Amino acid sequence: MHDVIISGAGPSGSQCAEVLAKAGYRVALIERDANWRKPCGGLVSSRVLKLYPQIKKLNIPKIRGGVLYSADYHRVEYRRKDILFSTVMDRLELDNIMRDTAIDVGAELFDKNLAFDFISKNQEKIGIKTKSPSGVKEYHGKIIIVADGMSSKLAIKSGLRSKWKTEEISTAKCAIMEGANNLDEEFIYVYFKPYMGYGWIFPLGSNRFNIGCGIAGEDILRYNLNDIYTEFIGDPKIKEYIPGSNYKIIWSGSYPVPMVGVL
Ligand SMILES: Cc1cc2nc3c(=O)[nH]c(=O)nc-3n(C[C@H](O)[C@H](O)[C@H](O)COP(=O)(O)OP(=O)(O)OC[C@H]3O[C@@H](n4cnc5c(N)ncnc54)[C@H](O)[C@@H]3O)c2cc1C
Questions:
Q1: In whole angstroms, how far apart are CA 61 and each of 44, 55, 133, 144, 204?
Q2: I need a surface site. Which of 46, 174, 259, 262 has the fewest CB within 10 A?
Q3: Ligand 1 test: best mutation among 6, 15, 40, most atoms within 8 Å of CB?
Q4: Is the CB of 219 under 6 A from ligand 1?
């Protein structure tokens, strides 16, 4: 029996686990697959770096500004030397650091456990059920925190939220690529599109970058995300920064993003 059961060891779950374990609670952190790399731009704000100072010791880009392009390619650039820097990371590395920090202060990780339902007693939720390689498992706790992302089944079963509506979501595709490029490693590059769309290139250092784009609301039904992505990475304005024709794709994936509430 734990005090707190947390479903999902992404940034939200791991941060909750860390805070509660530090405060003396017995925390079970339930994760379906700790090796999953969430499709993400990997932009990490300076506020996160304050909470995880160990990240600053890594060989990471120090982002101090941005280049923004309007739909007709008007360009706005800003750079501030006087602000705390943000950075860009491989998302798997960020998740591992946050999860390990929670484990170091006492949270117990239960990996390869897919949460699929609550355990209820007298109309109260007293735990969660998971599917693990050794069969169905039950985790009991006084407090249950659902932090298993936007495809969460538990969030819907809890009655706290309903299924996403098309106008509430965006869907994005991104990749980590490697190869010679003209990116300034102090900048992120963001593009706005004439339809409900956007794109980005974020430098990762060591000739790597995260590139991606998304479409939002009803445009998800109108456009094909793979076509939009192919068009985006081949766009002549993008090619100014990544002129090569044969970048090594380290990883790629697509995922929905909520457009309402907290991302
Ligand atoms: C394409 C894209 C680009 C983005 N770019 C950025 C960016 O550059 N910077 C930024 O700050 N934010 C970005 N975001 C948003 C960011 O990814 C989210 O805000 C963040 O991941 C939310 O963290 P979370 O812990 O709530 O959920 P998630 O990161 O989704 O974590 C949920 C965790 O729960 C686990 N899980 C899921 N289902 C179950 C289950 N049934 N049982 C057990 N475990 C489960 C998952 O494996 C995962 O570890 C982006 C999002 C997308 C989709």
A1: 11, 11, 39, 37, 6
A2: 262
A3: 40
A4: no
CATH code: domain 43-89+165-258 is 3.30.9.100
Atom of ligand 1 nearest to the CA of 257: 53
What residues contact residue 187 under an 8 Å CB cut-off, 6+ apart? 63, 64, 65, 66, 67, 77, 79, 203
* Reported ipTM exceeds the 0.95 cut: yes
For 213-257, how does the pLDDT look when each residue is reduced to its tens digit (9 = 90+)? 999 988 999 999 999 999 999 999 999 999 999 999 999 999 999
Ligand 1 atom closest to Cα of residue 13 = 25
Best residue among 176, 257, 260 to mutate for probing ligand 1, ranked by most atoms within 8 Å of CB: 257
List every span in the chain annotated with CATH 3.30.9.100.
43-89+165-258
Backbone angles phi, psi at 100, to 5 degrees: -65, -35
Domain 2-39+93-157: give its CATH architecture. Answer: 3-Layer(bba) Sandwich (3.50)
